[in-house]
């Protein structure tokens, strides 16, 4: 039986494995190429780990505005629904590969909610 997510270390493991998937997907890499080129991947993983640690364990490590970050990125690399579909599928798959339990389910639910809100803010549910 798999253990549940119980620490920041567990979250960092998920985020690291998740990014391994994102960074080899040709549809997803454009969103992260600047981070990789500038050798900021490890820093980025720490920031994302802080974000999820705050969500799961009520800490206060993440101080950025996650929505603004994505709106700013959208100016340079346009988000489409398929990007969110891939993001969610990789994220859920990564969690399910390594963990199971209440925190795991909560992390997956929150990821789906966040993806939905971002798509709404980016007007990806409108008919164009």
Automatic annotation (TrEMBL):
It comes from the Bacteria. CDD domains: TrHb3_P (cd08916). InterPro entries: Globin-like_sf (IPR009050), Globin/Proto (IPR012292). It comes from Polaribacter glomeratus. The lineage of its organism: Bacteria, Pseudomonadati, Bacteroidota, Flavobacteriia, Flavobacteriales. This is Globin. One of its GO terms (molecular function) is oxygen binding.
């Amino acid at each position: 039986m798999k253990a549940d997510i119980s620490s920041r270390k567990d979250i960092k493991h998920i985020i690291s494995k998740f990014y391994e998937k994102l960074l080899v997907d040709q549809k997803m890499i454009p969103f992260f190429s600047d981070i990789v080129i500038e050798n900021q991947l490890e820093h980025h993983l720490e920031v994302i780990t802080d974000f999820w640690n705050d969500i799961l364990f009520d800490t206060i490590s993440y101080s950025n505005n996650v929505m603004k970050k994505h709106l700013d990125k959208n100016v340079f690399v346009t988000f489409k629904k398929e990007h969110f579909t891939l993001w969610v599928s990789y994220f859920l798959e990564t969690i399910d590969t390594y963990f199971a339990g209440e925190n795991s389910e909560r992390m997956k639910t929150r990821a789906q909610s966040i993806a939905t809100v971002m798509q709404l803010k980016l007007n990806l549910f409108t008919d164009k």
